[in-house]
Amino acid sequence: MRSKSSYENESNKGTGKQSQEDSEGKLGKVVSPNSKEFLFICFLVTLWYSSNIGVILLNKYLLSNYGFKFPIFLTMCHMSACSVLSYVSIAFFKVVPQQMIKSRSQFIKIATLSIVFCGSVVGGNISLRYLAVSFNQAVGATTPFFTAVFAYLATFKREAWITYAALVPVVTGVVIASGGEPDFHLFGFIMCLSATAARAFKSVLQGILLSSEGEKLNSMNLLLYMSPIAVIFLLPAALIMEPNVVEVTLALGRENKSMWLLLLLNSVTAYAANLTNFLVTKHTSALTLQVLGNAKGAVAVVISILLFKNPVTIVGMGGYTITVLGVAAYGETKRRFR
Q1: What is the pTM (predicted TM-score) of this model?
Q2: Which residues form the Sugar phosphate transporter domain (predicted)?
C-alpha cells in the first residue's frame, strides 16, 4: 500500500497550473454528486408537497364545491389507482424489489391493516365535506397523540414523561382551534378525529402485526397488497351507502367532461402522495421528514385559505400554531429520549 507522503510527493510534481487543475478536478468530483443529491432531494420534497397538498385540495373541491358528494366512492377510486400504479411501479419500473406474501396469516394481517386504512381515508374524506381544509389539517396534526396512546395500550411501553408532556400543547391547540373555528361542524369534527385516530392505530398495528423479519414489508409493497383488498371492501360499501353514486357521477360527467379528468388526476395524485412519501423517507433522515411534515401542514393551510377563501380567526390560527409546535416538540423529545 502506498503511503500518504508518496501521493503528496507525486502531486507536487509538474507545473502549478497542473496542480491547480488536479485540485479543481478532485473538488468537482466531490461537490458534483452532493449537489446532484441535494437537487434530487429538493425535487422529491417538491413533488411530495405538491401531491400531498394537491390530493387534499382536490378532495375538498370535489366533495364540497363540485357536487360530487361520495367520499366512499372517491376513496375507492384512490385505492384503484394505487392498485394499478403500485403494480406498474414495482413490476415494471422496479422502484423497489417485490416482496411476496408468504403465508395465510400474513395475508390476514395485511387485510386487517387495509380495513383500518380504509376507515382512516374514508373518514378524512367525509370530514372534508363539512370542514375547511385549514381546520382539517389542525385536527390531523394530533396524530402523534393517538399514536402514543395506542402504542401504550398495545405494548405497555412507556415513553419519558417529558415526551408525554409535549403532547399537552398538541391537544390544547386543537381545542383552541375548535373554539375559534367559524365553520365548526360537529359531525365533520368527529369524522376527522376518527380518521386521525384510525391513521395512528394503523401505524401502531402495522408495527405489531408485521414485526417479524419474515413478514416485514416496505410501504410500497404494503400499498400494493392493501389497495386491491381495500377496493373489494369499498365497492359494495359505496353501492350500499351511496346508492345513487353511479347515476350522479355519470350525470356530472355528461354536464362537465372535465369531471372525469379531475377524478383521474385526483386518484393518480393520491398514489403519487404515497410514492413520494416513501422516496422522501428513503432519502432523508427521520428528523428531516418530521420537520418537512410539520411545514407541509402549514403550507396546506395557507394555500387552502387562499383558494377556498374560508374564514379564519386569530384564535383558530393560534390554536393550530400551538399544535404544530407541540408536534415538533414531541418529535424532538422522542428522538432525544429513546
Answers
A1: 0.84
A2: 41-330
